[in-house]
Amino acid sequence: MTRELATDAPFGQVLDLTELTTTDTETGRYAGVIDPTWTIGPKVHGGTMVAATAAAATRRLAEAGESFAAMAPIAASSDFLGAPDPGEVEYAVHIRKKGRQICLADAELIQHGRTLVRTAFTFGHLDATATRWSGPDTDMAAEPTAEAMRYTPDSPMGKIVHVSQGAHVLLDPTWGEFLRGETGQPRLRLWIRPFDGDETVPRVRAAFAMMAADMSPPVPMNLGHFGWSPTVQMTTYLRRVPAPGWLRVIATAREVGERMFDEDQLVLDSTGAVVAQSRQLALIPAS
């Protein structure tokens, strides 16, 4: 499978897969391409890897029967063994359990014969009606404010976060003390929205929400810690298909330690509903 890589590829292309032949009847294998658009620095963005692997697992489960086609990856527990480069990747998926309410699958993202991401997926049915109860309202505006800092290709953040070439991304400066050379609490907020073509397809919006749950910069930046913060482990939840429009990403930490920090990211859609969540354990930059 060969495709010319683009620097402005729509997110939907990340989900396009080609089935590969295999003698292992228990494992589905698929090929895909992740373009440089969906990278942070030179490496593929972690949330994009989770969403792309989820697409492979979803396809494999759907092949097990029509009753499973309506299920979605409601939880993903990912271990990052290495950092893939943009380009061609493979996915190997093994279904562990098929049930009426819950299904389980193990999946691997492979590049050059090496497993780089290992994810355990839980499949179920997404919420589609109003919530029974929701936590305290956020004071974050539903749409970017006039003061919001847009990631552009020539901005300091845009030069690193290439995702901004495939989606609208704006950082809330009220929580970004590091932008002013100051320190503050380990918390950040941003707005993100797919480009028009991606926003029209519900399955792409859902996958985009999973990706967005890993979109915030590392929150220790507000404490003066800059540089690469490798994710050790991340768990992602998908709650519902987001309504069209802006997504709000709210990132916070419980503790920033000597070597590691935790980071929770909450994703709200334009209606204020929770659409995705994540919690990760990451390493503090060495510098």
UniProtKB/TrEMBL annotation:
Residues 35-124 form the Acyl-CoA thioesterase-like N-terminal HotDog domain. Residues 161-284 form the Acyl-CoA thioesterase-like C-terminal domain. It comes from Nocardia halotolerans. This is Thioesterase family protein. It comes from the Bacteria. Gene3D superfamilies: Acyl-CoA thioesterase, double hotdog domain.
